[in-house]
Task: structure prediction
Amino acid sequence: MALTRAARERLARVALGHLAEPGNRDLAVLVRRVGAVESLRRLAGGRVTGRLADIATARLSASDPYELAERALREAERIGARIITPDDDEWPDGLGDLTRLSRDGPDAIQRDTHPPHCLWLRGPLSLAEACRQSVAVVGARSSTAYGNHVATELGFALADRDWTVVSGGAFGIDAAAHRGALASSGRTVAVLACGVDRAYPQAHHALFERIATTGLLLSEWPPGSDPHRHRFLVRNRMIAALTVGTVMVEANLRSGARFTLRRSRDLGRVAMALPGPVTSALSQGCHEELREPETVLVTGVAHVLEAVGRIGLDLAPVPRAAPNPRDRLSPLERQVLDGVRPRKVLAAEEIAAVVGVSARDARRALPALELARFVTATAGGYRLYRRTDRFQPGPGCAELDGAGSHGSPSSHAATSPPHQPGPARGTAGRAAGDG
Result:
């Protein structure tokens, strides 16, 4: 049965995915110019030159390349995988941006950055749908407890808010991010540097199976492909291109995660990094990237969503200090309280002289402070309240009860606990510092 043109184009792309390493610029340019079918015909017929001739010599056997593609399709079906090409609805639009990364020169990592001809997938998610709202979480393999904690929290919180967590399935930060997303029953995608039938690292076999059950395993290389060292850097451009932004949690100066973050920046995606201890070698890469003007400093999911989310809607809350009992005092009450001593009893006039207010203002504020359990009235004057004091309101408090001088004393009595510690153990200087 004769194949349709679309079917032959699809098979040709699958065959080309076997013949050349992903991203090969010469082959990508040829395919865009003449199509996958004609490109494969020229490779098989030896009608190419330069690097493409080397590809044909090294990887193209005497067998029909379409038979190679058919075997790949059967193998994908056997292992529960599927193959997609740019003609499929599931193909992410963002991969087309990869052509912008290509630079002239001998360095293949900088030159061969073009989109793959096809992708192998395992898992139920639609890749295009999963990537539409996605964030990459990357970092060091030999991560610290701090990095693992942050990556897990990020993965969980992002997935819990219906964002797809994308990473590379490696030890350390990658695995923590994937596990965090899985713990929230959210979406996660692992972009591999080997075939989707390979568990690398082997210790992550169970993790990859969980991802394949609810998320996606993705690779540019056909099943059975080994995870060669250079393929991890090739793979990193995919992580950057598939997502809206990339968060780097921990990275040393030579980390591949920095490469991913730079790819994200070059593609116009949002590049984010978390700070860490300045003494930690695994945060030096993050700190160096944060010196770049385009890199956004984030400390949690709220900052990440503010950077990648909807403008004006996904804003991170402004952090504020925890409320302090002194916050409810009026400025006069705080000033008078600064003049009260923890042990020495002072009269209202003495306190007024210490803090520079009138004796009348001091006499007006002190009953309110007593009612709010900040000071204790004694026969000779006032001192700071202690937990062991039994509250017996002085004559001035009776006048305030229900009246609320400055609008605050009555509310203090209603909201303060029976044994509000206040600044009982501090000196006058420490009490002043609490404000």
The two ends are 84 Å apart (CA to CA).
